[in-house]
Amino acid sequence: MNLPEERMDLKQKLKKPSQKDKDNTSYKLALFSANIKKFLPHIDKSEYSKLFKEYLYFYWMSGSEQYCMKYLKTTKIINYSTIDLKSLEYEHPLIFSSFHFGSFRLFNSLLFELGHKIVIIIDDTIVKKQKDDLLHNVKPMLTAKEGSDFVILSVQDRSSIFRLKQLISEGYIMSVYLDGNIGIDMKKQDFSKGYITINFLKQEIYVKNGISKLAALLNAKIVPVISFRDNEENSTIEFHSEIGTEKYNDKQDFIINAIRDSYKILEDKIYEHPTQWTSWLTLQNLFMRNYTTTYNQNDTIHNKFNNERYTLFVINESHFLFDLLDYKSYPIHKELAIAISNNNFNKIDNNLHLELQQKNIII
C-alpha cells in the first residue's frame, strides 16, 4: 500500500470536512471533549476540535499502518526488559500486554516475524473481524519463520483457558490489550466482579484484572508493550521491564498492582501524545457517572451559550444538547440548536429561556 498517499488523502479530508462529515462525528467529538475535559483539564477547550481531528487521523491510520511492510521494517524497537526478543525459549510463560496506543497492531507482527508463536486473547465481539483480518490480510504479507504462528482466542470462551494452557506448553507466548474491552458490556456500570480501581490521569477508574490473575495462575511474566509515533509519524515500540510475582508482597498484591503499574506506562504516554490513544471515546464507561453537577446561580446574565459545560451533536438529523460534566444528552428542536450555534436567543420562548438559564445552558 502507498502509506504516504493515504496519509495525505486523510489529512485533506479532515482539513475540509463536509457538513455531513461534521454531523456524523459530532457525537464522538462530544464524548472526546467530555473525557479530555475530565482527564486532561489543563488543555483549553479551544484545542478540543483540533485534537479531535488528530485523534481521528491516528485512529484511522492505526488500521492502515499494519498493511505497510516498509513501515513495519522501519519501526524502532526499544527493549527495556531482560527478555531476548529473538530467543524462542522462555524461562517462564510470557504475556505481552499492550494498549490501543500509537500503531498498536505492529508489535504482534514484529514478534511473528521474529519467529514467535503467538496466541492473541481478545474480546468475543471482535474475534471474527480481527481474526479474518489478521489471518487472511496481514499474515500473508509478513515474513514468517519456521515456527511463526498466530492463534486467536476469545476472552469470554470458558474453554479458552484449557486451550491456552495447551498452547503455552507448546511454546506459545500470549498477547493481550489491557484496554481491549473498554466499553464492552460496561454501560451497566457494574464493577462488582473482575474489576479493580486505579488512579488514572488523576481520576479513579475501574479496570479488569483478569490478565494479572491469569499470570499468577500460570506463573507468567507480564511484559508491558506500548507503541507511539514521533512528530514525523515514525513508529517506536517499547518493551518495558517484565512484571512477575516476585516483585510484590504476595500474589494478591501482584494481581492488583501489576495492572496499576502497567496503566502507569500508558498514562505517561498519554501526557506526551494525548491523541494517539484510540480508547478516548469509551473511557466514560470506566467510572461511575451516577452524579449530578449543581448549577450556578448567576447574578448577571450575558445571554450567551455556556460552551464550558455544554456542546451540541447530531444523530440522524436529530439534534441533542450534551452536558460535558454529567455526560447526559437532551434532545432539542433544530431551532434551538440553531439559536445556540448562533448565540442568538431573541426568538426563544420566555419559559424556555428561563429554564435554559436555570440549567446554566444560557449564562
In spatial order, strands of the major sheet run 1-9-8-2-5-3-4
Number of strands: 12
Q: How much helical structure, as a percent, in the residues?
A: 25-40%
> Helical segment tally?
12
Give the biggest sheet.
7 strands, mixed
Uncertain stretches of 5 or more adjacent residues: none
Indicate the mean pLDDT: 93
Oligomer: single chain
Written description of the protein model:
The chain is an alpha/beta fold and 363 residues long. Helices cover 38% and strands 19% of the residues. The protein is built from twelve helices and twelve strands. The chain has a seven-stranded mixed beta sheet, sandwiched between helices. It has a three-stranded antiparallel beta sheet with strand order 10-11-12. A two-stranded antiparallel ribbon has the order 6-7. A hairpin with a 2-residue loop joins strand 6 and strand 7. It is globular, with a radius of gyration of 23 Å. The relative contact order is 0.14. The model has no long low-confidence stretch (mean pLDDT 93).
